[in-house]
## 1
Amino acid sequence: MPAPTAIDLTERSTALGGSRKLTGHLAKPTTPGPWPGVVVVHEAFGVDDVMLRQTERMAAAGYLTLMPNLFTDGGPRRCLVPTMRAALSGLGRAYADLEAARTALTAHPDCTGKVGLIGFCMGGAFALVAAGRGIYDAASANYGQLPKDIDRALAEACPVVGSYGGRDRMLKGAAAKLDEALERAQIAHDVKEYPEAGHSFLNDAENGPAALRPLLRITGAGPHPESAADAWRRIEDFFAEHLKS
């Protein structure tokens, strides 16, 4: 699978009231197109090799995949806190940046017009809020914080597949609450908690600042290959049902 290609999304983002500068990473399948699109929303640590491989993985599964770098305009230190606040508020330039990525996919000549969204950690929170906006065909939320008014946020959501770790101390009970909310709203969904996994268990390697990694291990965060294999199978099956059919 070829490495993702860096592209400039600045014109789209500024037109939508988003970042003054926005880059993204586009990955294409090796099979003949056209393909459905998928927007990838990265973790709080930003775009790194692990997130780029997640983008490649979605392309390998048959999706025209684009990950916007939400920290382009200012870097992680300046952008992290306001971007995380925006995730649950549903407001701010980060959502305009995601819309810039989505419209870049729908405008691509090799896109079928159907677009899904997959988010990890911070990106998982974005995925849940964006799922209720009526512009995506499916969403995958992975260990993402739940919206404060979850019933209102998900009342008219697209189909949602969610994956959480039972050892994730930050999100105790989140999987059950999400499952119950989607059931109440009668939204097609597949939500599962993995008892032996923690936060960021879908990653294929440790990431984040080296100084923080010992602390992350103590909290149970990081790769859990057995749980990840099952979660990826569910995600790919769910997206195939709702994006490729």
## 2
Amino acid sequence: MNRKGEETVNITEVRVKLTDAKKNRLQAFCSITIDDDFVVRDLKVIEGHKGAFVAMPSRKLTDRCPKCGGKNHLMAQYCNDCGTKLNEKRASRGAGRLKLHADTAHPINSSCRELIQEKVLTAYKEEVENSKKPGYKPPKYEDMDDVDFDDIGEDLESEKTE
């Protein structure tokens, strides 16, 4: 329990997949498991100006075409569906920068963010060191490309009938 009498986060596993990015800021994709019960995927280790940090999973923000209603990323110049020219100033600014992504999962307090960052960066550094050893083989890292959506649909159907 923490000082407020609340349960604390227990990160029971961190998985790291290094990128091939020597000149890119994106260094790795990560997933964390909380209490052996809940997985958060698509955390990213990014090399910033002050060192590595952990970016939370996010999605691109979109809006709809005023002509056809098609969804488009906020930086799109033309509608993906009908080709209409879109207003270039439709993205909102937050702290002076264009807001193009929104977190899909994130800690709600600084102590939780610090814990996640500490655990992920420690695992990342260990993986970087392991990758330098002869015969290194990256660990299996399941991402959404590895998921069989037919199995998920079957699981959901079986839950409905139980």
## 3
Amino acid sequence: MAHTILVPHDGSMDAQQALEYAIETFPESRLVLFYAIDPFQVTPHEEKQLPPLSDDWLEDQREIAEEIMGEAIDKVSEAAEDATLEIETTVGSPAESIVATAEDLGVDQIVIGSRGRGAVAKAWMGSTAELVVKRASVPVTVVR
């Protein structure tokens, strides 16, 4: 029986490692790559200072998400030949969006990197991963 695995991905090395782990561990599963556009996070590499949630800002964020997902898929496309790879993008708090999407899609497990690209990271596990572990109703594997 094929399982559905949600893999949050923000472009960080830990997220990439989580994706690689998911592909190796669940080679014939439906893998859902997930990206949350966080309206509360200011990204320092943005050239324009657009107001959060404006149409232009949201379009820029969707382009960033598409680029990150494309790079992730390119890096693992050969290893994922038996897996079904899908992409989900939403706007909202990453932790809350991950948990809500897991429930909405009826996933069997979440595989998440221990730390993302956030400016402030906890010693061994980032705040998003920690909140997902606490709130998810399905098993969560944290990859370091």
## 4
Amino acid sequence: MKTYPNVFIFDHPLIRHKISILRDKNTSTKEFRELVEEIATVMTYESMKDVELVPVEVETPLERTVQYRVRAESVVIVPILRAGLGMVSGVQRVFPTAHVGHIGMYRNEVTLEPQEYYCKLPADIENKTVFLVDPMLATGGSACDAIVALKKRGVRNIKFMAIIGAPEGVEKVAKAHPDVSVYVSTLDRCLNAQGYILPGLGDAGDRLFGTK
């Protein structure tokens, strides 16, 4: 796959270990959900290396000092429904005060194109750093449409995070939205004729919520 300056593919041994368990068809719903949350947490730490800090005055047991913190309530998490819900708790471990919006997309099984059916976002989202999350970046259609929905509402700082990506989807998002940082923990081989990632892990939503 061509290299894009806004795409970051993780090569973290701990994530690779957890991905190997996610892929296993015998992994239970409970363990699958926990692993998705854990991977999302690790990805959040890595993707926030450029986060803006503001100075604050702190009194230690010995003296007053100026330190730096992430601006309060500066982060919003927006999962693409429904599978993106599985990553929310993982991001909230890093930003427990983050507000959460929701974008609902479903894939037309004939055209494989995404259809929006729901969008509810926190007020003042245009001034926040938005984590748009979905475990699987397959064709890239849902991700692109969700990014467009956020931009229409004035959001300027978007970080898209997916646990597993196909080259087709990663390239589509990178080309369509060069101003969006795309973080993918694992890049898989390709899509099959039905638009599923190979080797992948099946339907992430079904495995997260026990509907497989």
